[in-house]
Request: fold
Amino acid sequence: MNWGSILDNTLSFMLSPETIGFMLAALGLAVHFGYAGLLNFGMAGFMAIGAYGYAISILSFGFPWWAAMLVSIVGAVIFAILLGIPTLKLRGDYLAIVTIAAAEIVRLLFQSRVFDEWTNSADGLGGYHDSFRSANPIPEGTFGIGPWEFTSDQWWSRLFGLFLVALGLLLVWLLMRSPWGRVLKGIREDEDAVRSLGKNVYLYKMQALIIGGVLGALGGVVIALPSAVIPQYYLPSLTFFVWTALLLGGAATLFGPILGAVLYWGVMAFLAGLLPAMANEGWLPMSSTAAGNFRFVLVGLALMLLVAFRPQGLLGNKKEMTFVK
Amino acid sequence: MSSSSPDPTASDAPEAADAPLSQDAAQELEGIDEDTVVETLEVEPTHEIHHATGLATGPGAPGVAKVDPILVADHITRSFGGNKAVDVDHLEIPRNAITALIGPNGAGKTTLFNLLSGFDKPDTGEWSFNGRSLAGIPAFKSARLGQVRTFQLTKVLARLTVLESMKLGANGQRGESIWQAVVPPLWKSQEREIEERALGLLQKFKLFEKKDDYSASLSGGQRKLLEMARALMTQPEFVLLDEPMAGVNPALVQSLLDHVLDLKAEGMTVLFVEHDMHMVRHIADWVVVMAEGRIVAEGPPGEVMKDPAVIDAYLGSHLDEDIGVITGRYDEEGNRLP
Amino acid sequence: MTTIGSLRRRRSAPRASGASTPAPGPQHTSPWRGLWLIVVTFFVVILQAAAPATAQGDGSQVNVEEHDQNIVANVRYNNEPVAEVRVVVSGGGYEAEAVTNERGQVRIGVPTTDPYEVLLDEETLPEGVTVEGENPITVAFGSQFFAPANFFLGEDVRETASFMSQFIERFFNGINFGLMLALASIGLSLIFGTTGLTNFAHAEMVTFGAIIALWMWNLGLPILLAIVVAVIASGLFGWSFDAALWRPLRRRGIGLVQMMILTIGASLAGRYIFLIFIGGGTSQLPGTGGVRHQIFGPVKLSTVDMVSMGLSLLVLLAVSYWLLRTRIGKATRAVADNRQLASASGIDVESVTRIVWVIGGALAGLSGVLWAYFRPGIKWDMGVQILLLIFAAVVLGGLGTAFGALIGSLVIGILVEVSTLWIPSDIKYVGALGVLVIVLLFRPQGLLGRRERVG
Reply:
């Protein structure tokens, strides 16, 4: 077993665009669930809208990369409003089911051959990278140390992603220490009480849904930046993976989503190397493919254990548990 | 999903669960047909005492006009599955007075409360607050107009600290707008003012030491106090208290009653729901009696309580336990002390 | 499927070389796709070298020895090979035809490297399937070693069939689908009603039944017996699922939202355990896709369809009888209606809950078997493909009401099938999910639920 390469891959993946995209998506989910108490199970829909908005704007309409990102943001805002109008007045568990259904509707429409001209249906989109790469200020070459040695283009998408994460963190930090954030946390605890104090609960929930949704869409963009947009990626299980990352770090904390995303993908990459290798060595009674899939069983178990035994996550305060209700 | 929710703190659970049962129970216990009682009350208004309060323009009877009403409601009905929970023809609440809304369980008090505060929509009806119609106005807007309410089962914001909950109550906060929220200098000074006011109220409600604790750690009575203090942060004109004394440790009842009296002293109008007559007797200036969704009697507490039908049907026979004495604002004969 | 589509599309979107394709899990295929899209993959391979001589005489190998260039065609139906399909190759005065073997393959030798037309004889396709794209396809060879072409096939929408007869046919299909959904959704609804649990892992209880049936059949049991064993095993699975996990958690007083996320974790774990055990492919139960008999008018049903519908009806009637007439059934409805009240009136809520888990599990297992026939095929994520439809049915009928779930399922099943008259079949689930959203908007208590009393 090659421990060196497994460890190398793990550390490298902790700084991958996918990890960075998960940071943004989990941060968005923290706004939804951790601060506003909204059970959004449709994060995959926001991520899909971000990624498709970006790719279609470039491929079909020839937008520059930054305008394409704005399209993604606008798309997420519109989706949040469309989703919020009917659902924000519903009870929590209904909201969960509706959001997961809405995200599936989005995915099915992107995957459908009806819009093939723009979405390329099941095959997804690729080849939209030129515009973003042409804006790369980093000189040609390969930089970095150890596992984090990347080409100029690879650094560019990572650094840009981290820049968005920093912006997102700043926004969430500012908002959550303001009276606005106080109202939001109040809604999380008991929206009727907040309503009785003269706050427009619906408006605050909508604003939270939009902010978290935009963060999720940007996460989708960052993941898609260096790769491709494939509809099958945006299954409900993607939402649940983001949830796992969020709950791992701590839902109602600022850095919980960041830590959660890094740990989630670190562990996933580590297991992706370790488990097949163990199977090949004969230490696991299964094929190496099956062993690779075994990590998703562990994700499910981890999600269960977290919720049952440490709902506040790694960074959360025991008293400020996420699921008091 | 909530019908089977095992969560005992669900706001609608108790009233919903006990409503049909307890009415039957009341009838069984008292052996009196409700309709008879209603008629008796309507036919026999008592004329002598109403002038003493100076609140009403006529004798104490259901729907009597008030000299200066803060809230006027007309033809309010609300049914649940064919069962009329509220059917109020006319009701006026006198300004700068403490009005008690009493009646047995399931009489529709909390439902009427929810309707008046915008937390539920009536099937029919009109009502106005300070002359301004509130029908169809969402709850948060009527709260902004100066009509604030509390809940029968206290709604504390468990994972907010006591001080944070208080500050949340203040209205007109600049920092509650999402655009200004991200620029702290825009709201910092206002935040300091709010904090001062909150601390002042906490001191008054004897919660100052708890200010940095999570609200979840408070006792039942402290929660009631916090909820009332939080409501006062909105600087209301009209306070609706839903069973403010329910489930409160007797040692705290005195303090709560005191605070209710203070509200009036500070110029506010109070409407409170209570099904226990002990609490009502001395602090209320006016009493409205509900049964089966309708208002069956109205008048000053002494007058309403002297009505034998009301006593038998709704109030039980424990009037001798005098709460007024506990608060020190009344002597043992029930006369208000200066 | 990716390769197929990329060849078909008009505007090519080449993936950047070296770019990684993000994928949350390996072997992820669309959960819906397998259902609606019947794709015949039609690879035409022109081999420059002589193909190795293989078994001759089954009609799938024609002129292979005579010519240097061979066209190899694979005919696949929902990723499964289709036998007995006639394929004709013609061009330059040369014509040859072959019939696919059990591997769905033909091999036809051609004399030159000129273009040839490859025609799939639609008359020989299974009932209800037709080529949607180009047919025949002209194969042009460049310098390429082989030039694959593909035909997209969809459900047969014959222009000749009248709207009414199409409608009736879909309607019957919808009833079949709806009855199958009802088996799963009644269990989900009862479990929700009695415990408040929004059970996402119900999908895996569905898959479990199908997998056990397949396993038993592979062990040599007759299929009917295998199904009975699968249903019993599913009931036991439901019981142990409750005993091992949910009962202890209920005792700990864990909140409903936490429980819901726990079911999601269980669903993920269970699904990937299935993947590890049965792999990413599709397996068939015996009797799948049999001959369809004309019942009346345009309605054609296979024996399996009829048995499936009959069995669903029978089981649903039995469940209704149980709920309406037996003591435990009545107690179950009481608990589902109001757990506290039922408990206060002396009903042993825990034992009712246990029974509901057993029955819910068994019903889910049976629906899994029927779903395996309807899809068709057993796959590790087959349950989650219909999970949202089950939710839609339960919400439409009114959460926690058993008969609401039955009606909701029929509505959803019929809606999904009939809606394909107007909308493309690859978005037919969108309609059902849209209904879910709209119902929650206007009547959150569902068709048969009661509006909660407020205050």
Notes: Strands of chain B lie at 69-80, 83-94, 98-102, 124-129, 132-133, 147-149, 238-242, 269-273, 286-291, 294-299.
